[in-house]
Design a protein that fits this description.
single chain; 331 residues; alpha/beta; eight-stranded mixed beta sheet; 14 helices; 17% strand; globular
Length: 331
Amino acid sequence: MALTFTDKFKIAALEFCANIVESTYYPLLYKHYAGMERHRKLRYAEGKRALLDVFRKRPAEGESSKPLFFYIHGGGWVSGKRNIRQFYCMHWADKGYVCASVGYDYALDAKHPEHLRQVFKALEFVLDRAQEYGIDTGRIVVAGESAGGYLASMMTAVATHRGLYDEAGIDFRYRQSFRPVGCLLLSGIFDPPRSLDTKFPFIKTYISAFAGENRKHFAEFFTEQYRVTAVSEDYADAAFPPTFIVGSKYDRLITESESLYEKLKSCGVRSEYYVCTGINGMHAASLDSVHGKSGRECFEKALAFMNRETMSAGNPAGDVSVAEAAADSAE
């Protein structure tokens, strides 16, 4: 059964309230970054919120291409503001990455897997401009927090299990060449049906929004067929790239991070798990990588992890060849 009027009202109310609360974080997270090149509100598709920002330090003459840090905001699929995440992304850009901060349509304008299709379109947009932005397309890190962490993990699942492109109806020209060298997941959800048992605030409304389904019919909706394109942890196997997982001590969703970490570790995937505490111990509060002690330490560990992975990988040409992209498009 589709969403009822009451479901839609709850989702709309949650969107409004969550975005109001997020707006109060702006002055708390604000930091000025000198020498930062900013490309804002780049439209990558037709969706209402299909916009992205690109940040990089102004390149020096003859500077080589840099790894891409592709970041997806959270907000339970019903909210989330890119401008709140810009400081976290610029922190990565300040450390030598080109950062794309990606928006996507909220429910009620989209439901799974439309969000997933959108973020792949956003990545395609960025890769089409890899030379312009100085991106080494052989060194891509996908990242996100909360619902964005879910989408980052699903992008990774699709990239390592390419049959999912067709299963989820994802049109992506670089499907043959895209494979992230690292994945950074902050307070994510990796099995939406399982997350219903976490007692995270408003979790049933969030999952209703994600699925476009009335909560009374979850049992009928969350079938094995549904899991094929919706549960990223099912694809956490030896093919998964090195992953840095961040949990938050006081977050009811921390069990999602613990479960994925244990699964990856059992498969022999290089992975690390860091639990934020103190003022960074709330859900996704590791985004404050400047003011909180635990957040700063988390960032430094994540940076060291991703630097190891991006330095050991790479495409010397620094771009995806035209022939390769054409082959992907014709597939």
